[in-house]
Amino acid sequence: MRSTATAGNETGIGVASRSRDADFASYLAAREQALLRTAYALTGNVHDAQDLVQNALAKLYLAWDSVRDCESLDGYVRRIMVNEHTSLWRRAWKRREHTSDDLPEQAVADHLDDGASARLWSFVQTLPRRQRAVVVLRYYEELSEAETADVLGISVGTVKSQTSRALAALRERAPQSLREEER
Amino acid sequence: MSKDDLGTRLSGSLHDHVDRAQTGSVTAYDVQQRAGRIRRTRWIVTVAAAAAVAAVVVPTALFVSSPGGDNSPGPVASSPSPQPTGPIDVTLTTDLQGGHEPYLDWMDPQRAVFSDGTGQPVDRLYPQFVRIGSLFLGVRSDDRGNRFLDIDTDVHSGGKAETRTIVDQVVVSRGGTTAAWTEPDGSVWTAWDGGMRQLEKQPAGVSAVAIIGEDSCADVCTVFYNAPGAGEPGLVTTDGQTERVTPRATSLDDVSSELLVAEQTSYDEGRACSEVYDLRHGKGLWETCDYTLLRFSSDGLHVLAKPSDADGIGPTSITVLSAETGTPVATYRVDDGFIGAQAWEDDGHLLFVRYSYGSGSWDIVRADLRGTVQRAAEAVNASEDRRPYTFGGNQ
């Protein structure tokens, strides 16, 4: 006989769904800020970061039953975010067509130097999305080349070449002051 | 600045800015609402395959039980013949006022101009191309009619480039986020800005017609294709389903996001008959032997068409039909020349690449559904077989 696992007049499906939602909510509470920070590094603005995280978490929610036993929930979400981000250009372009009441995001003051860090952050925002994703994974998330390749679904060699290209672009665009500080 | 130094500074800069940024929050409610929308989108994709099965099976059962023993398809409304005076009937004259350059991706022999305001010098004019973010897919031919797809994974700064031999064309989803093409051995490929996926192999020689799905084929999508010769059109999904699309189609022209199929049903002595078929409800909506159908508008409300007896280098008129009824909404005519290419700029605007024999030149004309027309790109002198403008996206 199949167990019906009821609680009061609640069906087994209802209990399972509630448990599932509770598990998901716990994960969300624990990881939300870290995911938002990664998304912010990828997108460069809060609005797109929230949109990106919301979309990735929605896909995780839909796949929760098949992935929640895995140890790599963060990796799953991160992979979705990075890959979604590269296809967000069209939505971003559409948004630029509309005026916004939102105030520009406040610049973050540099603790460590005299504006050089802010300039470097600005240069990162000008990188093509794929290169920016590699930079974020390698230098913010501090993933290895192999881990970065796994997230992006590309070869380690491509990670190396994209990293090298991104650093070359940053070096080329970096102001003289940045280069002088290295001497 | 050494590589290691820059890497250290980069890491510091990212942590300095990201870790202290106010990134707000995402609620479980927001996530669940978004999940609901994604689920509905997936349902549309799934139902395309299911509807195709029903479309083939259900009408056959109905025909068998028909009291009169008439196995012909059920009645469908015939669209009116092309009217010289439809609701809107516009002749594209040569003395048009100038307007903004096209708002979609387009190309001339020197440059590609993208809808996000960026551009790129080009060393060749691709007869067809698709751009998805930084991914560029350009279709070209050689003298023997072979088709090649040039793929550049980062069109702005030079990414990985490769060339594949393909069949016919590359197609792109309504949202402009995912492309599909087929290769001579029947391989079906999809690509988006950041990934590629091969679907289950189909018969050799099939050619992609349309792709529907989400932002990418990483999860689910469906590719519709035509088969060579007398083969039947079909579809293939990411989960490997392969189906015939509709009962009567001999070839497909387009599939809308609402799962309407523009298809050809017969061809006889240079004249083609076509219909729009509703995949969701498994029935033909209307049929015409006066027009050949082209592409749906992105909202699925209209479909472009050209006269079914058009021949030669290009049609002299293009008509917008209601997708639901087949009724002409607007017809655009060229008196002294022909239309070399056409595209939906958005749901309410069309773009035509028009050739004028009088001036021996090509230009781009924009028209809306109320009959307002303007020039969107200057006239360029070129022979009639050297069209100097190409629109990005589905052709």
Word description of this protein:
The complex is a heterodimer of chains A (183) and B (395). Chain A has 183 residues and is mostly helical. Chain A contains ten helices and no strands. In chain A, helix 1 packs antiparallel against helix 2, helix 2 crosses helix 4 (73-85) and helix 7 (129-140) packs across helix 9 (156-173). With 395 residues, chain B is mostly beta strands. Chain B has helices spanning 3-18, 28-64, and strands at residues 77-78, 89-91, 106-107, 111-113, 119-121, 128-132, 135-141, 147-152, 161-166, 171-172, 178-182, 188-192, 195-199, 207-213, 221-226, 234-237, 242-244, 251-255, 260-268, 271-278, 283-288, 291-296, 302-307, 317-322, 328-333, 337-346, 349-356, 361-368, 373-381, 390-391. The longest helix of chain B is centred in the first third of the chain and has 37 residues, at 28-64. Chain B is globular, with a radius of gyration of 23 Å. The model of chain B is unreliable at 58-85 (pLDDT under 50). Classes of the chains: A mainly alpha (183), B mainly beta (395). At the A-B interface, helix 1, helix 2, helix 4, helix 5 and helix 6 of A face helix 1 and helix 2 of B.
